[in-house]
Write a structure and sequence with these properties.
alpha/beta, seven-stranded mixed beta sheet, 7 strands, binds glycinamide ribonucleotide
Amino acid sequence: MRKARLAVLGSGSGSNFQSILDAIDRGELHAEVAAVFSDVPGARILQRASLHGIPARMLDCAGFRNKFPEEAQRKLAEELKVLGVDLVCLAGFMRLVKKPLLDAFPRRILNIHPSLLPRFPGVEAWKQALDAGAAESGCTVHFVDAGMDTGAVIRQARVPVCPGDTPEKLHARIQEQEHLLYPAAIREVLRNAALGND
Ligand code: GAR
């Protein structure tokens, strides 16, 4: 069977992207990363891509603070089709994906979020959990729909909130689980997806 082709979108350090690459290297994911895209100039995820010889480029979001303009999404969707991408993985990507991409990749766009959704959608979910006095938190991989962190859940992992936790400590504990959860969820989706074997 041919390898599934993934595209990864990220705005930050790219540790989840790295966990996907590591799972591929260990033979746990029958996949390859075709390309990486970022909306943040100089983001570490871009450096990680170039270290691994994976094509990477900036998205056309310059001048749009939190938005991912429709035209840029349309252009990206076309590019992903040309690249033969099967699955789009949002890995710390901080803009909302809308119609042009969703229509081009129905149930083929995944996101990882640092909370037990539906609790604490949005930014800095680990801080939200601390502020709310939650006894536990965790992470979720879900299909992306037009809402913010609202799509169908694929897998979740739980972590305790410990006495004396700072936002950084809690986020680090959640990220340890993210790095296991994302490759496992991708494997599950690929197993259930009918990918062409061309
Ligand atoms: C991760 O914790 C991810 O869950 C979160 O951003 C971090 C990115 O880390 N994503 C969101 O908050 C999306 N709503 P990384 O760049 O090291 O993978």
